[in-house]
């Protein structure tokens, strides 16, 4: 879809809030709390940004973009080049970070810009009358997003702002994360180290994996020093394709004329999920569960590789 940037607001020195409206005036598809959109940027990159405003009430999508110090090109491009009136291509909202269904209580742990999907979740849970507590970790007062909203009466007693790194104070996280209970779910979004700390603390307390949820827009660095060549076979025609050590499966398939949709290219969004007919995969994604890895029915060819000599793909 083509959207027009109709508003840009700065929050502190490092965050911009963008409002996107349909270029042709049509109705934008609705979305659920936790959803995100993919932005196709002018420099050829595709980046994912959470929709923080919930529910959609005025036919607009709203995102927050942090100017990251180690930007891979996405946030830097938006902060330096995007202006009001610019046209941005986006996809229909997808939700890979949905709220659990059924009766529940919820703990939300936001680290910095990770407040964006959790803000939408917080609003949705309030509207549903669900018992919820939001812990918002941020460096200082200037970095707080949505401060005015979080201070309103209906949020009283449900939000705690914390200017402290949980990685430097693990006992703090331990005091905030209660023991697991039926119907109690934990959601977290923020830097990888922050989310790892939250998950590790919850897991140490006995939380089941199905009650722990997190949003990933950046994968942990991969060690590719021991990559080796292998082959993939196309199940529909039997074609054998060589995958060299320095290229991904999706890169080679595209060169050979086979279409596999990709977005993040890091194994965190699930766009490229491909069915596996035969072979053993070296899973490197952070999208599938450990159980799905063990089943070996699907994998992410954007980053994963082969343990066996050949992978047979349902293409």
UniProtKB/TrEMBL annotation:
This is Phthalate dioxygenase reductase. Pfam families: Fer2 (PF00111), NAD_binding_1 (PF00175). InterPro entries: 2Fe-2S_ferredoxin-like_sf (IPR036010), 2Fe-2S_ferredoxin-type (IPR001041), 2Fe2S_fd_BS (IPR006058), Beta-grasp_dom_sf (IPR012675), FAD-bd_FR_type (IPR017927), FNR_nucleotide-bd (IPR039261), MRET (IPR050415), OxRdtase_FAD/NAD-bd (IPR001433). It comes from Bergeriella denitrificans (Neisseria denitrificans). Residues 1-100 form the FAD-binding FR-type domain. Residues 230-315 form the 2Fe-2S ferredoxin-type domain. Gene3D superfamilies: 3.10.20.30, Nucleotide-binding domain of ferredoxin-NADP reductase (FNR) module, Translation factors. Transmembrane segments: none annotated. PROSITE patterns: 2FE2S_FER_1 (PS00197), 2FE2S_FER_2 (PS51085), FAD_FR (PS51384). The keyword Oxidoreductase applies. It is an enzyme of class 1 (oxidoreductase). One of its GO terms (molecular function) is 2 iron, 2 sulfur cluster binding. Keywords: 2Fe-2S, Dioxygenase, Flavoprotein, Iron, Iron-sulfur, Metal-binding, Oxidoreductase. Its EC number is 1.-.-.-. The gene is ophA1. It comes from the Bacteria.
């Amino acid at each position: 879809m083509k959207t027009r940037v109709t508003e840009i607001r700065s929050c502190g020195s490092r965050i911009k809030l963008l409002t996107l409206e349909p270029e042709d005036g049509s109705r934008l598809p609705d979305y659920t709390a936790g959803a995100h959109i993919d932005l196709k940027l002018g420099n050829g990159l595709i980046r994912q940004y959470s929709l923080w405003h919930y529910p959609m009430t005025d036919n607009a999508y709203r995102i927050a973009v942090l100017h990251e110090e180690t930007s891979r090109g996405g946030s830097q491009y938006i902060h330096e080049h995007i202006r009001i009136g610019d046209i941005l291509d986006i996809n229909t909202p997808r939700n890979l970070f949905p709220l659990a269904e059924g009766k529940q209580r919820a703990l939300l742990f936001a680290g910095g810009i990770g407040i964006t999907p959790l803000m939408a979740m917080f609003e949705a849970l309030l509207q549903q009358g669900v018992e919820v507590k939001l812990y918002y970790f941020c460096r200082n007062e200037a970095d707080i997003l949505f401060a005015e909203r979080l201070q309103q009466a209906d949020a009283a007693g449900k939000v705690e702002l914390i200017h402290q790194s949980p990685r430097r104070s693990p006992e703090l996280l331990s005091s905030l994360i209660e023991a697991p209970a039926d119907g109690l779910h934990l959601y977290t979004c923020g830097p990888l180290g922050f989310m790892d700390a939250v998950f590790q603390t919850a897991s140490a307390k006995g939380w089941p994996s199905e009650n722990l949820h997190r949003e990933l827009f950046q994968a942990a660095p991969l060690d590719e020093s021991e990559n080796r060549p292998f082959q993939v076979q196309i199940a529909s025609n039997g074609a054998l394709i060589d995958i060299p050590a320095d290229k991904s499966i999706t890169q080679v398939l595209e060169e050979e004329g086979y279409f596999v949709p990709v977005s993040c290219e890091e194994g965190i969004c699930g766009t490229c999920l491909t069915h596996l007919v035969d072979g053993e995969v070296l899973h490197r994604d952070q999208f599938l569960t450990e159980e799905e890895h063990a089943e070996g029915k699907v994998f992410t060819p954007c980053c994963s590789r082969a343990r066996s000599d050949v992978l047979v793909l349902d293409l």
